[in-house]
């Protein structure tokens, strides 16, 4: 498992996705610096993220179903601390 971002929100994202999806690969990338000063930038430097996650939990699921699993694991963060989240979700072997 890989976790590239290190702030408190990024760490919480990694912790929650690890618990919910038992991933074989996980990257949390903080993209906030690309959005500094734009709408949704809360000034914390942790508002925009990309997650790249591979998990057996995604086997047999389509893209929307996979994204829903990620969104469910992060629901309260998405409504309060995360302005934007890009999701790349795959099953092992894809």
General description of the model:
- The chain has 94 residues and is an alpha+beta fold.
- 33% of the residues lie in helices and 21% in strands.
- It is built from three helices and three strands.
- Strands 1-2-3 form a three-stranded mixed β-sheet.
What are the defining features of this structure?
94 residues, alpha+beta, three-stranded mixed β-sheet, 3 helices
Shape: globular
Content-based structural category: alpha+beta
Biggest sheet descriptor: 3 strands, mixed
Write down the overall mean pLDDT: 87
Question: How far is the first residue's CA from the last residue's CA?
Answer: 17 Å
List the helices and strands and how they pair.
Elements: H1 8-21, E1 25-30, E2 48-54, H2 63-73, H3 75-80, E3 84-90
Parallel strand pairs: 2-3
Antiparallel strand pairs: 1-2
Outline of this structure?
The chain is α+β, with helices and mostly antiparallel strands and 94 residues long.
